Amino acid sequence: MNFTRWSARLPGTQRRAATRTDTSVASDRRGDGSVPAARAEQLTDEAPPTPDVDDLPVRDVLDRVPALVALVHGPEHRLAYVNDAYVAAFGTRDLGARAREALPELDEPGLFPLLDQVQRSGRPRTLKSRKAPDGRSYTFTCTPVTGTGSEDGRGGRDGRGVLVFATDVTDHAEAAGRLRASERSQRETAVTLQRSLLPQELEEPDDLRVAATYHPGGTEAAVGGDWYDVITLGGGRTALVIGDVMGRGVRAAAVMGQLRTAVRAYARLDLPPHEVLQLLDGLAAEIDANQIATCVYAIHDPNEGRLVYASAGHLPILVRDEDGTVQRADEPTGPPLGTGGWIHASGSIALPPGSTAVLYTDGLVERRDEDLDEGIAALERALSGATGTPQVVCDRLIRSAGVTPEHDDDVAVLVLQHPARKGTEAELFRNAALELLGGVEAAPRARAFASGVLTSWRFPTDLHDLGVLAASELVANSLQHGTPPMRLRLRRTDRRLIIEVTDGDDHLPRRRRAEPGDESGRGIAIVATIASNWGSRRTPGGGKAVWCEFVLQKP
Fewer CB within 10 A of the terminal residue: the chain, N end or C end? Predict the structure, then answer.
């Protein structure tokens, strides 16, 4: 192997030679007077001549570099040279042999196809951090070189060759591996925290069927603060919540957990949706002034057949009716939670029997290359054709949006259906109401009405009597402390009997202990004692509603 002729054609040699020539010419010109002669002599005396790069023996240089170096030539990649570092790593090699036999350690990192590419294209290629059979990781750079080929008769006179330069990057690879393992651990921690803060099982309202799904986004510790919840409020009403804390990681998940807990606490106060968001807005600013969140809080009342909702910067609720027509609840929408200075308002959208509503976070519809409205429109189209149970609808919407485990954002979806019940099932869901007109004479009419309704619904005697007593006490309380208009409503589901009285006074009753000499104050105490649950709330148009419920025994 004539290595001198190969080294003369290594990349950069011609440029260095040209540089040396230019430097010599420039030195001659400085000697003509641009630099004082005395100074020139001083430099000549003190500085020894620096050898040119081309004067250095290339083989000696390559032998001494710590990186692994191999030189192959010809279409069969005959081995022309390996340096001392290569020999120390993998042992001696048979020069002149084909690379596949002489350098088998290059097969596992995938170098042989790369040698062909470099030789054909004449361009260098690099493979980063590939593990070799010795267990260490190397970055391989393959550079084309030209020369006369070997002179041993086996490689012919093909002057094309490839210089393989392998740098040991084991420490960097191990550090990167530890970093990836740490990121995976952080992500697992964040996802575990996120899922533990979400409801483990959704509450099951009597009048709605619900399903929800959550998909963490990304492959790093990028889990976000998406959440959802279903809260039974009593009296047949249900609160539905979905929200999204801006940001990623454990911090966003922790803030989400605090907001979700606060929502459940505020929901127990049975406040209108806009008042719940008003309280959440102040709390979000206290938790973290730099963190904001979007949220929709909605309440379903089966007596009204509507969703009453308030939105804090969140995406609109979508409702699909039985015919497949989708409506978008756009207004009203306020700024996100944590911004302050805004008075939220409630709106409503019809949710008749047979309809399906979808609450979702932006990860389902937002894409970097699309307008947000286009994503919502695509979701509307998918929802218009989505039938089946709420879980089936959830899955179809996720698939239609192209959500995968590598999706770059969290996705939360909450689907609720108000089923249209027919036949025998419809007999288990009944309503009856009576306007309470007049004065104290309304009380006996209310008792007679309650007795007749409960008898027609074929309740057992003990439950019939308890229901009549509860209706009588609630009506008496309303007649004494409330103002017209007054109404008694009885409702049954497949799981409970609900008795509710509304009036025009917004003063909420409270349970108290009546003294022996008191003539009043025992009605609510009696109701609380005999009923499974009771409560009160202010109604949107002014006034209040007081209710109680009895859990039915399963047949």
Answer: C
